[in-house]
Amino acid sequence: MSSQTRSAPFRSEDIVGFSCRTLSSMGSEIRRVFLLGQKLREENPAIDLVDLSLGNPDLEPPTEVREELVRLAQEHVAGAHRYMDNAGYPEVREFLASTLQKSEGVALTRDSVFLTCGAAGALQILLRTLLDPGDEVILLAPFFSEYRPYVSNMGGVPVIVGSDSNHLPYLSQLKAALSPRTRAIIVNSPNNPSGALYPESVLLEIADTLNRFYSETGRLVHLISDEPYARLLFNPAELVPILKIYPAAWLVRSHSKDLGLAGERIGYLAWGPQLALPETLNALRNSARALGFVNAPALMQRLLPRVFSASVDVLQYKQRVDAFVDILLAGGLECTRPRASFFVFPRSPLGDDNAFTERLLGEGVLAVPGSSFGKPGYFRCSLTQPLERVIEGAHRIVRAAQFKSAK
Ligand SMILES: Cc1ncc(COP(=O)(O)O)c(C=O)c1O
Asked: pLDDT grade, residue 41 (50/70/90)?
């Protein structure tokens, strides 16, 4: 019998492995809502949707960033487009080390900085380096939904700790969650989805809890501080230097949001002197290679020191957030006032977050249920739309909430 080529499409299980199917179902809610919006637009091109689903920053890169990019592209430097050290160009790491040394208040060298493809790349490289199969990683709800697949990718097990109505973690739950398999905790402040900023006192208590756990059990828990919104704080003085607070802290930063460069993929990882063993950098290099990142984009690395002090106009995000929250509060919704970025995380007036986001669809608003961030009963609105659309969205949300109270 001769072999035959099948003419019908293959089945999904012929293509997508079981693990990938399982991982893909985690945190897919944001995309699901976004795709639903696309479908609604295809079905009815005239539909007036306020899309608050995706956290895709809409403010364009500052002019100086665009001008420097043109300048860089025109400079003919031999080898400028080749592979380099997986950790990044030494002079760029040197620049970041001396800059961060001042803001973080700890001694850094270029060998404690690693350039990455955004914060996402940094998190994957770091988790691959730290985790063994079965190691637990504590996530503080509400959390960025991709953390679950990032941890599971490396054989890790996410362990969820809840938070109060200000979205600050319950420290008693954190203490109870620590186990002989705990390897790391991911802290994301300023936070996606809530816009909350953990005050220094909370970070100190987390550090104290982990220090005690280390003294009592000998188990070191790494604190991964994921800070892609650090430079979108409405009051920059509120930023807490995490490397100074905890000796096993890893700083993850990115310029996706503050320079409006999310599609260009540039970020970095930095760590303090107690983690700076000769093995550390090499282990991270190996992870970057094994995961296929190889190195952060060369052009973006060279751009970074030239535009480091530039930023999108954070006040525009603040204006949207304030206007949106004011309308929601006046309309009787419960909502904490974000301290950074463009996310707002109100409480669902129906209790059930899925039911309320479905109701919002009827008003032409796309928002993401809090369940996908590990905190049901809330919903996330990403204000990456012009101010007038954000205001329109807020009024529609109030209408949807009042429709419920009228019933
Ligand atoms: C909390 C958090 N971490 C990491 C990322 C990934 O950001 P990047 O574009 O820098 O990879 C995002 C992106 O939305 C985020 O919200």
From this structure: confident
Read off the pLDDT of residues 224-268 as tens digits, 9 standing for 90 and up. 999 999 999 999 999 999 999 999 999 999 999 999 999 999 999
Span 110-137, pLDDT tens digits: 999 999 999 999 999 999 999 999 999 9
| Cβ pair 145, 372 in contact under 8 A | yes
Domain 63-307, what architecture? 3-Layer(aba) Sandwich (3.40)
* Overall pTM surpassing 0.85 (yes/no): yes
Residue 381: in which H helix or E strand, if any? strand 379-382
Please report, to the nearest 10 degrees, the dihedral formed by the alpha carbons of residues 7, 13, 15, 19 taken in order: 180
Distance 216 CA to ligand 1 centre (A): 34
Q: How many angstroms is it from 267 CA to the middle of ligand 1? A: 10
For a ligand 1 pocket test, name from 117, 146, 148 the mutation site with the most ligand atoms within 8 angstroms of its C-beta.
146
What is the CATH topology of the domain spanning 24-54+313-406?
Aspartate Aminotransferase, domain 1 (3.90.1150)
Distance separating alpha carbons of residues 120 and 122, to the nearest angstrom: 5
Instruction: Quote the ligand 1 centre to 9 CA distance (angstroms).
Output: 35
